[in-house]
Amino acid sequence: MMRVLHVVGARPNFMKTAPIMAEMAKRPGAFEQQLVHTGQHYDVNMSDAFFADLALPAPDVTLGVGSGSHAEQTARVMMAIEPFLLQYKPDLVVVVGDVNSTLAATLVAAKIGLRVAHVEAGLRSRDRTMPEEINRILTDQMADLLFTTEESANDNLAHEGIPEHRIHFVGNVMIDSLLRSLPLAARSTIVERLSLSAGRYAVVTLHRPFNVDEPTTLHEILAALGELARDLPVIFSVHPRTRERIAALGFRAEGSNLRLIAPLGYVDFLRLYSAAALVLTDSGGLQEETTYLDIPCLTLRPTTERPVTLTLGTNRLVASERDAIVRAARASLDRGATDHKSPPPFWDGHAAARIVDLLLSDPSGRAR
Ligand code: UD1
Ligand code: UDP
Hints:
Order of helices and strands: EHEHEHEHEHEHEHHEHHEHEHEHEHEHH
Number of helices: 16
Helix content: 40-55%
Strand content: 15-25%
Mean pLDDT: 96
Oligomer: single chain
Structural class: alpha/beta
Shape: globular
Strand order of the largest sheet: 3-2-1-4-5-6-7
Radius of gyration: 20 Å
Bound molecules: uridine-diphosphate-N-acetylglucosamine, uridine-5'-diphosphate
Distance between the termini: 18 Å
Low-confidence stretches: none
């Protein structure tokens, strides 16, 4: 029996951990699982909603760290998780993605000498002004098992001197969650509740500090969205960081076709973007989800750590400038549907099964 401790903390973690926990539960007698929620995200619509939507078990431990500066948040997770790791002594700690909770849990586990698996390893934007890039590099250096989603990640890890035997190309667990949830999303009434017509609206999410914390940039983006909203309804799911920044600008969209809504749960949001004509985002996960579903996506960033979404998907990078955004969005809407492309390798709904098979093929419990 392998004792596994999973760590989640922020919105993009839940859809990555859920399929791995479900897959381990399918192998009777093989795993004892514990789930730790750091509490990095805590609003109902940034956290609780995902447990029901993704059938995640309730956390065994909640650390309640909340918001703060990077140092505060990272340190709080480290201090709160250490006693639990020392007491539970798992055979494996599974961390996902690139948020502060991921780095903090990995650092503590590695120093205790626990074995760590990093899911979604090796992605690199090569932009160290992004806190996630620092989190990715350090987490990958410390983790024993590196599970990758795309081939660029394997190359990045090799370039950083990580031995090949630690790297396992398993595919994308986010697509496992997406495929599992499509039947539920088909029953969602969110498009009707928002009085939209499928294929005739755009969906927006933004939360990167370089887009939303700088008032001039945020103003440019809001102006672009306002202009685009003359062509079609623009539904903006507003992240709490962004909500605070928009309020500080004194911006109001009332009376226009630009509609600011609270973040949605996973299933409603899947239904919403899967029926959109266009997605505009700076989210990591949404670049991948739109790639899989062939939804045109404009990413308001100068770089992406997920280059396969540019080469095999519908994703395009756009500068966070009013004219550039409007031009790219109109060009994309004019182009309409493109030829259906095959999804990237191993984005097939079986990534979690590959991870679990690999863990079971290493019964010694060592990182091979
Ligand atoms: C975090 C991650 C980012 C990820 C994003 C996903 C880091 C460094 N950043 O960014 O990689 O893409 O989550 O959504 O880990 N807030 C609330 N309620 C909440 C959560 C946050 O009001 O439930 C507000 C707080 O004012 C907080 C701010 O949002 O200060 C930012 O939250 P934080 O977790 O620090 O970073 P995110 O921008 O959410
Ligand atoms: N998401 C959601 N509801 C929303 C906005 C996003 O369920 O209102 C989902 C989205 O489909 C994806 C994940 O949240 O699965 C991405 O999280 P986020 O953009 O917060 O983080 P990132 O991927 O950028 O780290």
